[in-house]
Design goal:
This protein is mainly alpha-helical. Helix content is about 80%, strand content about 0%.
């Protein structure tokens, strides 16, 4: 189980870094659904890993990060934004 939790954490880190790299390189916009999904699933990975390891500040930060991502997705869905941004 410990190895699985570590993998989930590393995948979460990879997703968040991938999203940041894609936005920084101009391949995605911060308003794109793809970017927000990378952040949401990345945050979930960090929440699982941080919670398992008792890193409460990291877990709390990622719960907020997750909330921001879900809020952005809901706003984007309401505007009918394309998968790679406006």
């Amino acid at each position: 189980m410990k190895a699985f939790i570590e993998i989930v954490g590393w995948v979460g880190a990879g997703l968040i870094l991938l999203g940041y790299a894609l936005v920084t390189s101009g391949r995605l916009t911060a308003r794109s659904i793809a970017y927000q999904l990378l952040n949401v699933f990345g945050a979930i990975g960090f929440i699982v890993n941080s919670g398992w390891n008792g890193a409460i500040p990291s877990m709390a930060l990622n719960v907020v990060w997750l909330g921001i991502g879900i809020s952005a997705l809901l706003r984007l869905r309401g505007k009918g934004t394309s998968p790679d941004g406006p």
